[in-house]
């Protein structure tokens, strides 16, 4: 509920304000002096504070500071019978929302309280989002108990509080950006900008502009100055994914940032100073790239201060269950689908899959399965066709997902699952004889 605390030693005026504010749906607390008001602030969730300036035990202007210390989200409106510019200026410096004359116009007080409340609610929403982001990208959000992932997390925890440049190595989809965000959130930069850029998504000229920014007129279409991500991330962290894709001419500019903390924007002649932590990632072998002349050796050594190699999903197979359960819950919640579990056969198929796309591929497969599910339990028929084919023909010469026999076998399996194993009903839906169905089941070795 919306709450207001009124601190005023004039009981009649305080009571009048309380009645006006309560009529608008607020819960109102009252205090006759600063000592009583401070006690209420400490035990009540107060959104807006209405406080007299002249009180028996102190000054409301000074009380703004202590109120903020007790409750950082509270907004204070000061009331005075004898306003002066000096008090008004000091009140705003101390963090007051507004400073008004008593009894000037009581009709103005509710709109003013509502404006203050909007700021309170916005601040609370921002704080909530920060907590959610912190939780989502914490080290605790990195699931798995395998030795490989535990070692990677422990290394990340060790380097996070430092200012060291970090190089994350691993295949596509292993969670490099999640690690980068977790390192940022567990450093002194938390709460400051975290900017991420995939270097493979841009050509040389556009990538230079995206990272370093440009001056107006630097090239056709550059109508105004633009800050690059490295400047936007100042005092925070810049995550450069797929750093191995960066053109070698741009690598020298990044090297200068790492060595001197300054860079020159496209079209500028003066350097710009910046304080930013760099976390880079790649799925390439940068040492091989250096040997082939595709990556600067000096930049490699500047980036290679602290390296963390993220394991593939193939190297942490027993983590698949916990990851699949997590993606099942999040996908079901996301699309409001009542799917709560996986069949043993479904889970076994997940464990035997190659997962060349790693965690990202698993997440996509689980989301697709939840969308397709007709029952609260995911079955093998909810998996992509190629995974179903791989499961059924596991140890034999695998049929192609495009072969007619494969498609027929999988369709029969789906209809059997739909009919919960009832072969008579299955034969009716397939529009074939029961004898034919039994023959097909034996031929394809369908369980």
In short:
The protein is of the alpha/beta class. 48% of the residues lie in helices and 15% in strands.
Keywords:
single chain; 447 residues; alpha/beta; Rossmann fold; Helicase, Ruva Protein, domain 3; 4 domains; 5-stranded parallel β-sheet; 19 helices; 15% strand
Protein architecture, described:
By secondary structure, the chain is α/β, with parallel strands linked by helices. The protein has four domains: 3-131, Rossmann fold (3-Layer(aba) Sandwich), CATH 3.40.50.2300; 139-311, Rossmann fold; 313-380, Helicase, Ruva Protein, domain 3 (Orthogonal Bundle), CATH 1.10.8; 384-447, Homeodomain-like (Arc Repressor Mutant, subunit A). The protein has helices spanning 11-22, 34-43, 60-70, 85-93, 109-136, 147-159, 176-185, 204-212, 229-232, 248-260, 286-291, 297-303, 320-335, 344-352, 358-372, 385-392, 404-418, 423-430, 434-444, and strands at residues 3-7, 27-31, 48-52, 54-55, 58-59, 75-80, 98-101, 166-169, 194-198, 213-214, 226-227, 237-241, 262-263, 272-273, 277-282, 306-309, 341-342, 377-378. The protein has a five-stranded parallel β-sheet, with helices on both faces. Strands 9-12-15-8-16 form a five-stranded parallel β-sheet. A two-stranded antiparallel sheet has the order 4-5. Helix 10 crosses helix 12 (297-303).
Given the structure, what is the number of helices? 19
Rg calc: 32 Å
Fraction of residues in β-strands: 5-15%
**What is the class of the largest domain in the CATH system?**
Alpha Beta
Distance between the termini: 58 Å
| Overall average pLDDT | 88
CATH architecture of the largest domain: 3-Layer(aba) Sandwich
Give a short account of the largest sheet: 5 strands, parallel
Write out the CATH superfamily name of the largest domain.
P-loop containing nucleotide triphosphate hydrolases
Level of helix content? Answer: 40-55%
Helix-strand category:
alpha/beta
Shape: flat
Low-pLDDT ranges: 392-399
């Amino acid at each position: 509920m919306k709450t207001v605390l009124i601190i005023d030693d004039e009981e009649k005026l305080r009571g009048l304000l309380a009645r006006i504010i309560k009529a608008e749906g607020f819960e109102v607390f009252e205090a006759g002096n600063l000592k009583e008001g401070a006690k209420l602030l400490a035990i009540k969730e107060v959104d807006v504070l209405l406080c007299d300036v002249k009180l028996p035990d102190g000054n409301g202007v000074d009380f703004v500071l202590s109120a903020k210390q007790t409750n950082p989200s509270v907004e204070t409106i000061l009331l005075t019978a004898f306003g002066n510019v000096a008090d008004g200026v000091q009140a705003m410096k101390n963090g007051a929302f507004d400073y008004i004359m008593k009894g000037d116009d009581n009709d103005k007080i509710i709109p003013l309280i509502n404006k203050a409340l909007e700021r309170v609610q916005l601040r609370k929403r921002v704080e909530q989002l920060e907590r959610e982001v912190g939780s989502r990208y914490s080290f605790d959000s990195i699931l798995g108990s395998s030795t490989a992932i535990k070692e990677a997390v422990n290394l990340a925890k060790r380097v996070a509080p430092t200012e060291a440049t970090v190089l994350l190595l691993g295949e596509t989809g292993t969670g490099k950006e999640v690690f980068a965000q977790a390192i940022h959130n567990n450093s002194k930069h938390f709460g400051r900008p975290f900017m991420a850029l995939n270097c493979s998504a841009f050509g040389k000229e556009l990538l230079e502009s995206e990272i370093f920014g440009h001056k107006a007129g630097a090239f056709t279409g550059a109508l105004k100055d633009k800050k690059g991500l490295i400047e936007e991330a100042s005092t925070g962290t810049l995550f450069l994914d797929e750093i191995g894709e960066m053109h070698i001419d741009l690598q020298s500019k990044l090297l200068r940032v790492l060595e001197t903390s300054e860079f020159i924007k496209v079209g500028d002649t003066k350097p710009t100073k910046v304080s930013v932590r760099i976390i880079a990632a790649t799925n390439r072998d940068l040492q091989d790239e250096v040997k082939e002349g595709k990556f600067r050796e000096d930049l490699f050594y500047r980036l290679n201060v602290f390296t963390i190699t993220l394991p593939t999903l193939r190297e942490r197979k027993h983590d698949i269950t916990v990851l699949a359960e997590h993606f099942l819950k999040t996908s079901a919640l996301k699309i409001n689908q009542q799917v709560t579990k996986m069949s043993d056969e479904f889970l076994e198929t997940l464990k035997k899959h190659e997962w060349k796309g790693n965690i990202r591929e698993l997440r996509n497969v689980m989301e697709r399965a939840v969308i397709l599910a007709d029952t609260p339990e995911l079955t093998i028929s909810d998996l992509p066709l190629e995974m179903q084919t791989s499961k059924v023909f596991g140890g034999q010469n695998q049929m192609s997902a495009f072969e007619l026999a494969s498609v027929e076998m999988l369709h029969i399996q789906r209809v059997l699952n739909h009919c919960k194993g009832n072969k008579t009903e299955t034969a009716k839906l397939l529009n074939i004889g029961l004898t034919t169905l039994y023959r097909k089941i034996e031929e394809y070795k369908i369980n």
